[in-house]
Design a protein that fits this description.
Layout lengths: L15 H5 L12 H6 L23 E7 L16 E7 L6 E3 L3 H21 L18 H15 L4 H20 L5 H19 L14 H17 L10 H30 L2 E3 L1 H4 L2 E3 L23 E3 H9 L8 H11 L18
Antiparallel strand pairs: 1-2, 3-4, 5-6
Protein name: Zn(2)-C6 fungal-type domain-containing protein
InterPro entries: Zn2-C6_fun-type_DNA-bd_sf, Zn2Cys6_DnaBD
GO molecular function, one term: DNA-binding transcription factor activity, RNA polymerase II-specific
Length: 363
């Protein structure tokens, strides 16, 4: 009978009540804010990634949260598709946000590294999270990317006019990008808009000490915006990519999404460190998937026809990767890896043990 046919699994993260009412769900655990306010039962098909708890803080109970990797490409070759999941145990007693304080040299390093993104992008339209080879024509990037590239060039070449000219333009552009983000027609457009918004925020909230913005008080709205940006990209990301993409472009797309989400949360943390000398992190950030093969990002397109395809062995959580960096398992830490190590662990590359020849992860 039809009723005996099992229903296919769903990746829905909203609770049942919010899904039926077509309302936004903040995915709090064990009850979302909307259900708690309405005093109704809150049931999840999949336990949300942002797991908090109202239970006693001494409880040792844990829950296993299974997440799909962001974007498992449907690659156009004969190799079998690779589908995989990352499983993490998150204690139910773990607070929704974790406060961390870092030494001043680490904060200065993070601010400097994130502040360099706009000037780097102005030179070659490429950063740790934006890759020009992803676009069908590198000379014709999406309009949000073109517009922010112009502002990045103006910002990097005219430092003396930053206060009077660039800052108002950046504020106006950020507001426009934020509005566009909620009305994009495709995920590709959403990704480009999010990337442009992150570059604009790097110039606005990580301004030089002599600019007006550095003297402003910490803005919770900026922190919330960066948090929601990462959540939105994660929730809207397609599970599979079209088979028409080459293995290289499919990998670049998936990696661009992963890196953009990570950089968004890193920027949120760095902003808090800069303004308040401590950062806030969530279990969701640590559970994000990460491809350890960071060298592929800068490798030439023409190297090996299958280069850049998804690999189960290369995928770990961001928490696992930062732990590998800290313990000296990764040989030859990249510049992006150095920022992740500093942001996630509060450590400098120079302070981690050098891996032995035997048994290191050569990524």
């Amino acid at each position: 009978m039809a009723s005996d046919i099992p229903r296919p699994p769903t990746l829905r993260r909203s609770c049942q009540a919010c899904a039926r009412g077509k309302r936004r769900c903040d995915q709090r655990w064990p009850r979302c804010t909307r259900c708690q306010t309405r005093k109704i039962d809150c049931e999840y098909i999949n336990i949300p990634l942002t797991v908090g708890s109202d239970t006693d803080s001494t409880s040792t109970a844990t829950t296993t949260v299974t997440t799909r990797s962001t974007l498992s490409p449907k690659l156009p070759h004969k190799k079998p598709r690779q589908h995989y999941q990352l499983t993490h145990s998150i204690p139910l007693s773990l607070p929704l946000e974790i406060t961390k304080g870092y030494p001043q040299p680490i904060i200065a390093y993070l601010v400097s590294g994130m502040r360099a993104y706009p000037s780097t992008f102005a030179l070659n339209m490429k950063t740790h999270f934006i890759h020009p080879d992803l676009w069908p024509s590198p000379s014709s990037p999406p309009s949000p990317i073109r517009d922010i590239h112009t502002l990045c060039k103006l910002h990097s070449t005219s430092p003396t006019t930053t206060n009077t000219t660039i800052i108002p333009l950046l504020k106006q552009k950020s507001s426009s990008l934020l509005r566009t983000l909620n009305h994009t027609s495709s995920f590709e457009e959403m990704l480009a808009t999010a990337q442009a918004l992150l570059l604009a925020q790097c110039m606005l909230i990580l301004s030089d000490p002599d600019t007006d913005t550095s003297s402003q008080a910490y803005s919770e709205s900026i922190s919330t915006m960066l948090y929601n940006l990462g959540q939105k990209l994660w929730q809207q990301a397609p599970i599979q990519l079209p088979g028409s993409l080459s293995p290289r472009r499919a990998w670049l797309f998936a990696e661009s999404v992963r890196r953009t989400i990570i950089v968004g949360f890193m920027l949120r943390s760095v902003y808090s460190l800069k303004m308040r000398n401590y950062s806030v992190r969530t279990p969701f950030v640590d559970s994000l998937p990460f491809d350890m093969r960071t060298g592929l990002w800068d490798r030439d397109v023409g190297v090996d026809g299958d280069e850049g395809g998804e690999s189960l062995d290369a995928m770990v959580s961001l928490h696992q990767y930062s732990g590998m960096l800290e313990s000296g398992v990764v040989h030859g830490i990249s510049e992006f890896g150095g920022l992740i190590l500093a942001a996630c662990r509060g450590r400098a590359v120079q302070g981690v043990p050098y891996p032995s020849v035997a048994g290191y992860a050569g990524y």
